[in-house]
């Protein structure tokens, strides 16, 4: 999608689209409450005109009564009317604050859900694209501006209503005043519009710096990284680096703000002469035409209301434009689409694991010319245990990303049970798949049980199945020792919480796959942080537990691959060697050479993990 903010402006049509989009997502959590909020705010803030008119009538009646020694009976109906309007205004004022608090609180929390529902549809290629990553970063950061935009639209609508009503009233008794005030307020607000735009542009062109330095501030505040930084005495370096950014960025912003203050102050001072002329003109007219005191009060109030609301309207329009610029990335985020469409076919339900065929596939990552896989062919039979080995960058993880359709191949086909993977409906395909990557997720705010259960949340939690899965991954022993056992929160950031070690977290992550029990299981370095004894147990359990299921394992450790049905050695995007462990040793090729080196290293020092690149 085109990032139109590179030109630091948006078209009027785009502006209206962003306003409509923001209004819609702000009231999305509770549309009825949003409409009631808009209505109550509008009514409360235009009743002032009616009150002013009633007070003017009361003044005239009181003055007339004093002059003619009359009674106050004539003024009582107006006082009752004023009292009724005051009651209505106070009631609606209380209601609007209730509606406003309800809308803001709901949007504050639901905005994350609104983003999630769209974010999850975008796919890996979009989320890994640097330009689109900037859009998503700014879009998520600025989504709360939708609240600002909603209330600015509301302010502008109310101000416009007041301007129209008071303007028509002034045209009745002093038409020239309307034109003078309009021209002057427009001139006075031009500098403010200029500086608002300049400050936005300043923030926009520094987006990359802001994002980078937010990462740096995260490093010096992160409880894990701060330990290493303190030991290496590196936190001072990062703190100074962040402070330098603050001085440069904030200093530039303050300089812009100072220039804006001086310029707008001059124009605000000059406006006093306009109002001096306006009030004296009204007073002269009142005296010349012998009009009532109430009318003087009403006309001066209308001038004040007209100028104040017109000024507010221009400020609101300026603010709307600035906020719309900020929300343009949120607008773009919600209009980002996956790089390729989802399929429409549903993978047929079978008791067997799917057959997987990589038919002469070639793939290179977007914006690169280097092919990771080239004319690659592989057939994985249902229920086969496959181990994939090779040096870093050989294409092992890339192959799994293609099998999960994170990306589409550039040439050739991947067939799942004879169906092109690109034609499959991805959510239905994923029902058959379970994965564990090197960068697996940890959920510290959840209990141990929940961390395992999220492997398959389509059914109510099965506590016995959770324990069985934990035992298979060698996690039950340490979970059972927790004070709360499977109800233990897994983060010391929460009361009574405990943080598992890296190896324990990996065992819990593996438990999720045992609990899920899918037809196709993909492990990418699943036991990198686990001791050799636990690793041996876990993989015996994997091979035993997933009988009849297809298992794909990527690993550098021969203890995890030697019992596979077939070992695939990838080199330069091609299959260099394949066969079971014994067959590859007899081949005496690259696999055999690496295995002998690793075996020697493990014999020399059993505390070493024996990890040697193939």
> What would the average pLDDT be, to the nearest integer?
82
* Count of separate structural domains: 2
Give me the CATH architecture of the largest domain, please.
Up-down Bundle
Report low-confidence residues grouped into runs of 5 or more.
1-7, 603-614
Strand segment tally: 10
- Strand fraction: 5-15%
Structural write-up:
The chain has 614 residues and is an alpha/beta fold. It has 2 domains: 4-335, ABC transporter type 1, transmembrane domain (ABC transporter transmembrane region fold), CATH 1.20.1560.10; 385-392 and 433-604, P-loop containing nucleotide triphosphate hydrolases (Rossmann fold). The chain has 21 helices and 10 strands. The chain has a 6-stranded mixed β-sheet with strand order 6-7-8-3-9-10, with helices on both faces. Strands 2-1-4-5 form a 4-stranded antiparallel β-sheet, covered by helices on one side. Strand 9 and strand 10 (574-579) form a beta hairpin. The two termini are 42 Å apart. The model is unreliable at 1-7 and 603-614 (pLDDT under 50).
């Amino acid at each position: 999608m085109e990032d139109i903010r590179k030109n630091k402006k948006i078209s009027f049509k785009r502006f209206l689209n962003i306003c409509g989009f923001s209004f819609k997502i702000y009231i999305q959590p509770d549309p009825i409450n949003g409409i009631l909020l808009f209505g109550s705010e509008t009514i409360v803030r235009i009743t002032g005109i009616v009150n002013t008119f009633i007070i003017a009538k009361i003044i005239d009646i009181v003055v007339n009564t004093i002059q003619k020694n009359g009674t106050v009976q004539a003024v009582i109906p107006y006082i009752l009317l004023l009292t009724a309007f005051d009651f209505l205004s106070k009631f609606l004022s209380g209601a609007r604050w209730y509606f406003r608090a309800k809308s803001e609180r709901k949007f504050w929390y639901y905005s994350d859900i609104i983003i999630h529902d769209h974010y999850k549809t975008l796919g890996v290629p979009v989320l890994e694209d640097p330009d689109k990553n900037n859009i998503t970063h700014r879009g998520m950061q600025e989504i709360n501006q939708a609240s600002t935009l909603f209330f600015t639209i509301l302010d502008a609508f109310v101000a416009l209503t007041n301007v129209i009503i008071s303007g028509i009233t002034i045209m009745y008794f002093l038409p020239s005043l309307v034109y003078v005030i309009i021209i002057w307020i427009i001139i006075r607000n031009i500098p403010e519009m200029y500086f608002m735009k300049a400050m936005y542009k300043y923030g926009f062109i520094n987006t990359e710096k802001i994002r980078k330095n937010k990462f740096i501030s995260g490093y010096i505040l992160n409880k894990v990284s701060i330990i290493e930084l303190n030991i290496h005495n590196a936190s001072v370096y990062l703190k100074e680096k962040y402070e330098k950014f603050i001085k440069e960025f904030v200093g530039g912003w303050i300089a812009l703000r100072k220039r804006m203050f001086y310029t707008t102050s001059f124009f605000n001072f000059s406006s006093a002469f306009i109002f001096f002329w306006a009030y004296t003109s009204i007073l002269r007219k009142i005296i010349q035409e012998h009009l009532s005191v109430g009318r003087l009060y009403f006309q001066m109030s209308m001038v004040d209301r007209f100028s104040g609301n017109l000024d507010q309207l221009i400020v609101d329009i300026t603010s709307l434009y600035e906020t719309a610029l900020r929300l343009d990335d949120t607008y773009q985020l919600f209009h980002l689409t996956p790089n390729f469409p989802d399929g429409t076919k549903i993978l047929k339900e079978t008791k067997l694991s799917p057959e997987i065929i990589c038919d002469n596939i070639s793939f290179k990552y977007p914006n690169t010319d280097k092919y990771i896989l080239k004319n690659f062919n592989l057939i994985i039979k249902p229920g086969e245990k496959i181990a994939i080995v090779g040096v870093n960058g050989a294409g092992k993880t890339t192959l799994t990303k293609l099998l999960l359709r994170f990306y589409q191949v550039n040439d050739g086909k991947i067939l799942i049970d004879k169906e092109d993977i690109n034609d499959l409906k991805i959510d239905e395909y994923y029902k058959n798949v379970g994965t564990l990557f090197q960068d697996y997720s940890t959920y510290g705010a959840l209990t141990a049980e929940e961390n395992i259960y999220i492997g398959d949340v389509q059914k109510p939690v099965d506590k016995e199945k959770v324990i069985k899965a934990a035992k298979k991954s060698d996690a039950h022993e340490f979970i059972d020792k927790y004070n709360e056992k499977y109800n233990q929160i897994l983060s010391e950031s929460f009361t009574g919480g405990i943080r598992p070690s890296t190896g324990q977290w990996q065992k819990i992550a593996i438990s999720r796959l045992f609990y899920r029990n899918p037809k196709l299981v993909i492990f990418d370095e699943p036991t990198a942080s686990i001791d050799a004894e636990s690793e041996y147990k876990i993989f015996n359990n994997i091979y035993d537990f997933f009988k009849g299921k297809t298992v794909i394992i990527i690993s550098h450790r021969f203890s995890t691959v030697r019992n596979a049905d077939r070992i695939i050695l990838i080199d330069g995007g091609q299959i260099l060697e394949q066969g079971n462990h014994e067959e590859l040793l007899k081949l005496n090729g690259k696999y055999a050479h690496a295995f002998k080196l690793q075996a020697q290293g493990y014999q020399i020092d059993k505390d070493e993990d024996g990890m040697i690149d193939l």
